[in-house]
Amino acid sequence: MAISLSVVLLLAIVLVVLIRGGSLKGGPAAVAILFGFFLASTGMADDIQRFLDSITQTIGAIKF
Questions:
Q1: Which terms are listed as keywords in the entry (predicted)?
Q2: Burial degree of 30 (CB within 10 A; 0-12, 13-18, 19+)
Q3: Domain count within the chain
Q4: What CA–CA distance (Å, rounded) separates 62 from 24?
Q5: What is the spatial distance between Cα 2 and Cα 4, in angstroms, rounded to a whole number?
């Protein structure tokens, strides 16, 4: 839960920066948000979550 919340927060910050910087307009941003919302309710949501979890574990396993 903590990882998914931090990812949502990070993506929200990136979205705000892109909109304020003029790189992304409001319309396409709304489409992207709705796409993500509806994608989360499909059967692909579990596969996407497993993929993101594996990336998170891989990054966490890297020793500096």
A1: Membrane, Transmembrane, Transmembrane helix
A2: exposed
A3: 1
A4: 33
A5: 6
What pLDDT, in 10s, does the model give residues 21-58?
Answer: 988 888 888 888 888 888 888 888 888 888 988 988 99
In the chain, the amino acid numbered 5 is: L
One-letter amino acid at 43 equals G
Q: Is the pTM of the predicted complex or chain greater than 0.85?
A: no
Domain limits for position 41:
2-61
Contacts of 4 (CB under 8 A, 6+ apart): none
Angle (CA) 33-15-6 rounded to 5° is: 90
Question: Residue 44 has which token pair?
Answer: 């692909």
Long-range contacts (CB closer than 8 Å, 24 or more residues apart) made by 46-54: 52/7, 53/3
